[in-house]
Amino acid sequence: QSRTVSGTVTGSDGATIPGATVLAKGTKLGTSADVEGKYSLSVPEGTTTLVFSFVGYDSREVSIGGASVVNATLKVNPTGLDEVVVVGYGTQSRRDLTGNVATISGKEIKTLPVQSFDQALQGRASGVQITTPNGVLNAPPVIRIRGVNSISLSGAPLFVVDGIPTFSGNNSAVANVPNNPLANINPDDIESIEVLKDASAAAIYGSRAIGGVILITTKRGRKGQAPRLSFDNWVGVTQPVRLLKVLNAQDYVTIKNEAVRNLNDNRVRVTPPGQPLPTPNVEGFRIGQDANGNNIDTNWYDYIYRTGVSSNHNLNFSGGTDRTTYFTSVNYSKQRGMLKNNEFQRYGARLNVDHKLFDRVTVGTNVNYSNTRNDSPNSGSVGDAAFGTAGLGRLPLVLQPNVAPFNADGSPNTSGAGLGAGPNLNPTTNAPLVGNFYNPVVDLANNYFTSESNQIQGSLFANWEVLKGLNLRTQYGIDNITFEDRSFLTSIAGDGFATQGSASNFLRTNKRWNWQNTLQYDRTFAEKHNFSVLLGNEQQQTDVLRSGYNRSQVADPFFTTIQGNFTNITPSGEFQGANYLVSFFSRVNYNYARKYLLTATARRDGYSAFARNNRFENFYGASAGYVISEEDFWKNSALASKVDFLKVVGSYGNVGNFQGIDDFATQQLYASGLYGANPTLFYSQAGNPNLRWEIGRKTDVGLSFGLFGSRLTGDVTYYRNLIDQLILPAPAAPSIGIPNTAGPGNLQNSILANVGSMVNKGVELNLRFNAIQKTNFTWTVSGNLTTLKNEVLKLANNDQSIPTATSGLETVNFTTVGRSVGSLLAVPTPGVNPLNGQRLVQRKSDGALIQYNHQGTSGPGSTGWTLVSTGANVPAPSQLADGVYFGPVLPTWYGGFDNTFTYKAFDLGVFVQFSGGNYIYNGTKAGLHDQRFWNNASDILERWTSEASGNAKYPRVVYTDNVSNGSALVLSSNVEKGDFARLRNVSLGYTFTSGLLSKAKMNSARVYVQAQNLALLTKYSGVDPEISTNGASNTGAGVDRNSIGQARTFTAGLSLGF
Amino acid sequence: LLTLGTLGCSEERLNPIPKAQISDTVSFDTPARIMLQVNGLYRYVKTGGFLGGRVQVHSDIRANDFINRTNNGVTGLLVWNHTVTEQSQNDVINTWGFGYQAINQINVFLDGLTANTGKYTAPTFPATFAATALGYEGEARFLRALCYYHLLQFYARPFADGNGSRPGLPLRLRGETNNDNNALARSTVAQVYDQILLDLKFAEDNLPLTPAAGIATTRAHRNTAIALRTRVLLTMGRYADVITEANKLVPAVAPFVAPTGVPHALNPSLPAVFTSGTTPENILSFPFTAQDAPGTQNQLAFYFLPPPLGNGEYSLNPGAGGILNDPRWAATDTRRTNFVQSVTSGTPPSTEFYLRKYPTGTPYTDPAPVIRYAEVLLNLAEARVRSTNTVDPQALALLNAVRGRSNGGTYTAASFASSNAMADAILLERRIEFLGEGLRNTDLLRLLQPIPGKSSVGAVNPTDALYIWPIPNTELAANSLMTRN
After folding, report:
1. Residue A669: inside a domain, yes or no?
2. What ipTM score was computed for the predicted complex, to two decimals?
3. What is the mean pLDDT of chain B?
4. Domain boundaries, position A899
5. Does A353 map to a domain?
6. A855 contacts in B (CB within 8 Å)?
7. Is residue B1 part of a domain?
8. Least enclosed by CB within 10 Å: which of A272, A1004, A1027, B228?
9. Is A745 in Cβ contact with B69 (below 8 Å)?
10. Domain housing B85
11. pLDDT digits (tens, 9 = 90+) for A684-719
């Protein structure tokens, strides 16, 4: 005998809860609420209680008595204490968690105008620092979880999508166009993102967990859920902001001619009496006129930046029966950046299905296919191109404003590879002044750099519940990506001029299979002893192949693809890699009455890149937690009304790292090349057979709490991550001539060895406060803050200094013992000598002030440098001898601050990201004050001109002087603090009420507008304090050299549910 | 679970073998592989940043025959300006690094050649392989001498300064496959020259007299070693020894054709010497092909040719002191008519002059000259004049052979007031003849002459620190026994 009970499930916020689970207590009978939150359940006789539950709400038991209509109101659980957290190879309740795991809901990021979800994580989780290195679309963000986690290997986190580790980082073979494979994952498909930060949580990923682990869980259908169609769209515009001010034509001519005049003056002054005076340089900078007789005054930004229009469309369909659930989606995104020709496009489709095959056997599959294509001009901001003469970040800063981009006949103004001279004469030769910088209109109109990828991620799994609580699970996944990267350089001018036009194509395939077998046993003894035991094995094989070719000397300008005809062909970018990882792991969770919590994890990993004796390593993690608020004494005390949840946790363990080590790094190898037309064989790799794993020893102590009925919740954690056996470039004297695997013409001044040690430590704080919870108005504020102190403890030897060059040319980052990694080394300058306008530098050996006068000294030892006190010639200062360190380059504090307001159907989100405590080397500023023919920042007008100038901002300008500004000598005047707060996202939405919706046969509808990067608060004088010209380099952070900053994007969106 | 355990690990996958590279354990297993390694040594020496282009460019632009046009710090501006520092990447650091990388390739090869002797047995190896191996060793040691010689020219004081007693280079003679031997002090200049001469003697004794067809100008043979020896000895000022060596290649009277081995002689057409690089005059030139190109910003033509074929990095100095302006370089001289190109542009028009010795644009396949017969003739001529202190008749004949070939006019004994005047005429001839071939720096330094100034750049005196380059900071940082210049 049974009867039917029905009703509506509502949240304490008033909204119905579609999909809420309803169970007859003590039975397996249950159902889920429909889209309107209504349920109907046939309950057997004897059932007295129904259990209502849903993610994000407190579960609730309701006695039904004899009623046939039972409505339930579930309390919103903003603490997420009972939310299910995805951990490695399983899930856990946050209440029971002893490891440190941050969760970011897919909802928080799905509408953001990004290419890959990881770009949207800035400021969203404590301990996770994300830097957008430049404003080029699909550039991989730099993710550092709790500091920099390696020096020479990758310190990036491991990304795991639905259990299968995937590819990340820039995979493009064409330097100018980045390609982040994570862009193949549609952000709208993501249910949640979990960040495993401490040893306890991450050790289950053992050898790959030093940089933390980011787990991506995609959406699935829910059991009993009525079919549901969602349609989400947004359109947006992207614009540049904070472009740096440069001189106009008139000021340019004034400054440069003044510089020539000053140089002439210097040269005359140093000519000894009786010697003929030198031929004066020509004041060759002039204002030119265009065909209409108007003065030429070119704003180069106009030819490079634009307002880019983007749109994004997403359609998904999901549902479920008792046995089968499904989620399927298609998406299309087309995003145009602020840089001309910068465009990102994605097509994707996903199908996630779970099916109960037999009562105890479940099977399921996840399949995602995605095609992305990224087009980028040469921005100079990716791929070590900071000093390129084609970089669009640099060109508008340096190009002469008195030169026109086009000739009178409409053709681009060029001379050789470079921009035509215009009216300017070379002061030295009196010939037209031809610079080495390119005319960007040629590159933008003709050249292209694209990277296109096709990725299939698929896995199949089966779970057999052998006994109650004992699950045997197997999952086999593949993750295959094919990249086709293409570039074309026109013969008209620019980079393709010397090769008379060239094209390159690269094909890269990343193929991976991953097979996991786990046995999980969950059992509760005597009601209070909860055990969960996991045993597992994982194997992963990854094969990467890349081949490519370059063709040059185009046969006819008609040909702009590699399939056209060219005279020469050379192979390019050939690569073959193969690696295999095998692991055995186990995890044991135990808790007593959810009060005393213990977790122990062990993993043994073997990796093919290491030599036989060093191949296997054991990793482990252990943690314990104590939920004080579960104790009776607490519950019965007065405190309990104020502090309703209190948990202390601690963990320790060690994890490893090999990410980024070459597959054959430990072998001694020979490679083959060409000598003229003949093949060669040469010693190509001095491998180190003694290499072994990098080991991270992580310690965590934390406290989580809920106050005032969990209106204020939060946690605070102290972390310490000691990284040992760091694989470092142990110095190899250039004179021992170790080969570089890239072949002849590539220096190799180091050999990798496990010699270093480094520590990251700090505090993480998360707070969430439901400030106002009224029926019509709510305000939730949440914030997170992380502090970081990084210190290098040991390098190859105590005084080793690991330099990291920016684009191979300028070295400002040095990693040394006792300092934070990659600290800046700059020669201190107190400014400009008010008496003569010369750049002052403080010499380290004796603290004396010395000054630089370009080509203005003579006599023995003449270098341009003289002692201020006596005027005597002195040797030039050098960065190594006279530099002082500025650091760290990594923020010492960072976080996010999120406000959500709702008023009736309106919602407003205001999200601020902040970071600081770091130093930036503003190399762009050095270039902007260079006294070659380059244009200057408009503040060069504040240069020294006479004693009346007093303490001028910039030295007296002398033509060809590239020392006083910092181009040739790294000066402290270009080192700045990097503190900033960015209004990263503001969104305003309106959700239509159900009355209107039902007329339109819709379930839900929301419209919104959003602004990204609306405001930036910083004292940094460069374009953007987040710039990282050296990308994800562990030791090269904090450098801003000619890179473009982040754009500002406005979007408007519409989400519809049917 | 046991089943899972065994399923769960693949020993084969744990030991992947690279498919595009060869393990050191098998690199000496066949005669073909060893021969490929010999080719590899040449390839390393002709790295674009070393003797494949940059060494030649840097040697010439230090002096006053060229004007830097593009102000580009990557293409030799600092060298031209004499503002290099121990941190200068594209000249000071790279030249040193590429030179020593080539030396280590050679040393690793020499070590391997010896260590693998046990493998040189039938049937894989022919019975004659021992002799072949000696020839390979000769080639390797010839190349090592070439590398050390050119490194000395930039990083050590000239031999003439203290008769070689000044600090030279760390003398690396062992193959290095790890960084255990970072520290090594500098030998003296004389010690390094001694090793160079020792290597060249070995090469001379063991290199084939006549090389196989097709490789006469791209691989070393006996005459190559002798020719380089004349250059080395001239640089050391050992004029009598130059004469002894050069006499092996140069008969007493015209026609000047090498009497043994490869019959080197002046090629009637000079342009062909630079385009084909395979004339009898070319003793050693490094070849390039589209697939084995000099590399970006290393190509000789890229530096010297004006656009559109080159990038016009350097034009010929039209000012006083520059060779272009020297009245002794006749207007009819085919080296001027063939190799000087003028380009007029701008308003008002102005004319710039460029060296057109390397005429081929992309992919820049003109060979990089290392040594040619004309140099041996002028080495001998100068040595005779300086050792005899007379207006030596053979020297006069040799000088005229070079000058006359290009219609530069000929000298008579009466042209020279003194032997010094004749020596100066030979130096002038070398400047004209070898313009853009990388000999100028040595020709100034070996005689302790100032490096003349040009345009707005002043002269550098032999006493100045920047007369030679600084030792790279990378070496100073890693080699605890290294000392600064």
Report:
1. no
2. 0.95
3. 94
4. 774-802+815-820+884-929+970-1058
5. no
6. 456
7. no
8. A272
9. no
10. 31-314+327-478
11. 999 999 999 999 999 999 999 988 877 898 999 999
